[in-house]
Amino acid sequence: MARRVLLLLLASVLCSTTSWSAEPAPGQAGDKPDLNGIWQVMNRANDGLEAHPAKASHALREGPRGPLPAKEVVALGAVGAVPAGLGVVVGGEIPYQEAALKKRAENRTNWLSRDPEIKCYLPGIPRATYMPYPFQILHNKDAIFFAYEYAGAVRHIHMEDPGPAPIDSWMGQSTGTWEGETLVIETTGQNDQTWLDRSGNFHSEALRVIERFTKTGANTLQYEATLEDAKVFTRPWTIRMTLYRHVEPDAKLMQFNCVEFVEELLYGHLRKHPLE
Question: What is the rounded average pLDDT for all residues in the chain?
Answer without folding.
Answer: 91
